[in-house]
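TASK: fixed-backbone design
INPUT:
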């Protein structure tokens, strides 16, 4: 019996992480939480630019997993040949 996980679970998780990232970068959550000194906003902008590269890669991977038919194909994996001979005797 194979346990199947709906593809919606990781998709919703990715969307929630994307929303959290977006709020921290674009809505000013990061500035409010971490910046209390002068010049901090400039550093946070630099960090936001770098993290946007990783966010773009993550979005492309998520979209690619949904678009590629081989990523959605159900594969049946047979047990190894030695398990058919177990227990010995």
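OUTPUT:
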């Amino acid at each position: 019996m194979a346990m199947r996980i709906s593809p919606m679970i990781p998709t919703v998780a990715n969307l929630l992480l994307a929303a959290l990232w977006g709020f921290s970068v674009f809505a000013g959550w990061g500035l409010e939480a971490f910046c209390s000194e002068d010049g901090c906003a400039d550093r946070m902008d630099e960090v936001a630019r770098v993290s946007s590269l990783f966010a773009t890669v993550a979005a492309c991977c998520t979209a690619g997993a949904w678009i590629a038919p081989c990523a959605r194909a159900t594969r049946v994996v047979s047990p190894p040949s030695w398990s058919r001979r177990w227990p010995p005797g």
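COMMENT: Residues 40-67 form the longest helix (28 residues).
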